[in-house]
Structure formats: C-alpha cells, structure tokens
Specification:
Length: 156
C-alpha cells in the first residue's frame, strides 16, 4: 500500500466526490502521480462508504464541498453535454463501426438528431405575455355534465 501525500489524498477525495469509481481513481492516480494504489485504499477516502467512516473531518468537508460544486455546476461545463464533443465522439465511433451496418445506422441517426437539433434543452409553457397559465375551476351539475358529454360524443 502506497503512502499518500496530502495532494494525492485531496485528488482522491475530489475524484470520488465527482462520482468516479475507485477503479477509475486508481487509474487517474497512476497517470497523474505515478504511484500505485488499490481500489480499497481509494475507497477509504469516500465518507459515503463504510470504508471511509474514519476519514478525518477535513476530508469529509472537502468531499461534501466538492460534490456540491460538481452537482451545481452549469451543464455547459460538462464536456459531454456539448454538441460538438458528442459529434466528435460519435463521428469517431461511426468510422470504426462502418463494417457493422446496424451500429453504423444507429450512430448516423444519433449524429443527425444532434445536428438537426431534435434535442431541445428546455420547453417552457406560459400564459399570455409570459405570465402564468390561467386555470378556471367551475362546478357543473350532473345533468350539465351529461349534456356536454353527449354534445361532444355526437360531434364524433
């Protein structure tokens, strides 16, 4: 088990707060710090797990702060949420999968949906001049209901 410096511990805590798995963190630690750690060692820095129950308060606070920051960030900060990034990835996959007709068609359809804007980010329904929708509540007698119902059914 590698002995970790504070910078490495902070990196692990922040990575776990961003929903990386312990295995992904092991790979990231190896790439960034050139040290070997085990997934079990990494898991000890996650206060949401049993293994992280004895984590110091400093790292618990850091974890919760990093997770809140990660969740509250605007969607455009997430690489894969941007259309151009998605198109680049799908394009690379399309080139690799050209021999597989079914996959190539699916990827082509996905690319077309992104390019043509079929994925609307937000739809907002409002009333007149952007105000709230008006709702009207009325009381109808049973006879009035049955009469209105018959009129509607007669139209069809």
């Amino acid at each position: 088990m590698a002995r970790l410096k504070k910078a490495e511990k902070v990196f692990i805590v922040r990575s776990l707060a961003q929903f990386m798995t312990p295995t992904e963190v092991v790979v990231a630690i190896k790439e960034n710090f050139k040290i070997d750690v085990t997934p079990q060692q990494v898991e000890a820095y996650d206060p949401t797990k049993t293994a992280g129950a004895d984590l110091s308060q400093e790292f618990v606070d850091l974890f919760h702060e990093a997770r809140k920051k990660y969740i509250d960030q605007p969607i455009y900060n997430i690489e894969a949420a941007n259309d151009i990034v998605q198109l680049r990835v799908l394009s690379a996959l399309f080139i690799k999968k050209q021999g597989n007709t079914r996959d190539a068609i699916k990827l082509s359809d996905q690319i077309q949906k992104i390019v043509k804007g079929f994925y609307e980010k937000k739809i907002e329904i409002t009333g007149k001049d952007g105000g709230p929708l008006e709702t009207v509540q009325t009381t109808v007698s049973k006879e009035g209901y049955l009469q209105a119902r018959e009129q509607v059914l007669d139209e069809y």
